[in-house]
Every structure is written in structure tokens, then in C-alpha cells.
Amino acid sequence: MSAPIPQQARSKALRACLLCSIILAPADFRRVGCPNCEEIMQLKGSPDRIATCTTTSFEGVIAVISPESSWTARWQRTANYARGMYAAHVKGRIPEDVEAELETRGIKYRPRDQTDQD
């Protein structure tokens, strides 16, 4: 599976998912949702969810073409995700309802801003 590659050159026109850090245009999040965590984030067709679960505040862009064999994808914890463009650091946290859903599913939330180092 692969995600749409953003066509905008201006990074402020792009948004990064706060959970997986994939970078897409807002229209792509609205059209297809998040290719990695749509079941939890529920971004497809929801401008409000896109505004609260994604951000324009991110640093660095990593192109992941072969996530399963990429050292960088393993380091960024994106090796099991879709091919696409990912932010190296994402500023912000997921909403409390999403964090509660992750906890219910037994998934540990690790912020993408590098505050929770392994």
C-alpha cells in the first residue's frame, strides 16, 4: 500500500498525522483518511478531525519507499506503515479521545516529537 505523494511545494500547505507522522495535503486526508491509522483517527471526510489530529508544525521530511527494509523506517517506527512521505518530528499530541482509544486497545502512545525516547 502507498499513500498519495503531496504535490504542494509549500510545507505549510501540508499536514502531518499526529499519530504516524505521514505527510499529506489536507484534501488527501479528507479524501482517503490516514493510510496507516484511519481506523483510530477517523480523518476521512472530517475537516474537524483533520484539524485536531494533524498539524502543520513538523520538521524534516523522510521519503519511505520500502518501509519493510528501510533502516530509517525502523528508526522512525514506520516500517509497518504505507510508503509515503513522513515527518521526522511532529509537534503536538493526539487528542485525549484518541489516546484513550489506544490505551483501550493496549497500544502505548509515543509522541512523534521525540519527547519519548526509546
From TrEMBL:
<keyword id="KW-0539">Nucleus</keyword>
<comment type="similarity">
    <text>Belongs to the SPT4 family.</text>
</comment>
<comment type="function">
    <text>The SPT4-SPT5 complex mediates both activation and inhibition of transcription elongation, and plays a role in pre-mRNA processing. This complex seems to be important for the stability of the RNA polymerase II elongation machinery on the chromatin template but not for the inherent ability of this machinery to translocate down the gene.</text>
</comment>
<dbReference type="Pfam" id="PF06093">
    <property type="entry name" value="Spt4"/>
</dbReference>
<dbReference type="GO" id="GO:0140673">
    <property type="term" value="P:transcription elongation-coupled chromatin remodeling"/>
</dbReference>
<dbReference type="GO" id="GO:0008270">
    <property type="term" value="F:zinc ion binding"/>
</dbReference>
<feature type="domain" description="Spt4/RpoE2 zinc finger">
    <location>
        <begin position="14"/>
        <end position="91"/>
    </location>
</feature>
<feature type="signal peptide">
    <location>
        <begin position="1"/>
        <end position="29"/>
    </location>
</feature>
<dbReference type="GO" id="GO:0006355">
    <property type="term" value="P:regulation of DNA-templated transcription"/>
</dbReference>
<dbReference type="InterPro" id="IPR029040">
    <property type="entry name" value="RPABC4/Spt4"/>
</dbReference>
<dbReference type="InterPro" id="IPR038510">
    <property type="entry name" value="Spt4_sf"/>
</dbReference>
<keyword id="KW-0804">Transcription</keyword>
<protein>
    <recommendedName>
        <fullName>Transcription elongation factor SPT4</fullName>
    </recommendedName>
</protein>
<dbReference type="GO" id="GO:0000993">
    <property type="term" value="F:RNA polymerase II complex binding"/>
</dbReference>
<keyword id="KW-0732">Signal</keyword>
<dbReference type="InterPro" id="IPR022800">
    <property type="entry name" value="Spt4/RpoE2_Znf"/>
</dbReference>
<keyword id="KW-0137">Centromere</keyword>
<dbReference type="GO" id="GO:0000775">
    <property type="term" value="C:chromosome, centromeric region"/>
</dbReference>
<dbReference type="GO" id="GO:0032044">
    <property type="term" value="C:DSIF complex"/>
</dbReference>
<dbReference type="InterPro" id="IPR009287">
    <property type="entry name" value="Spt4"/>
</dbReference>
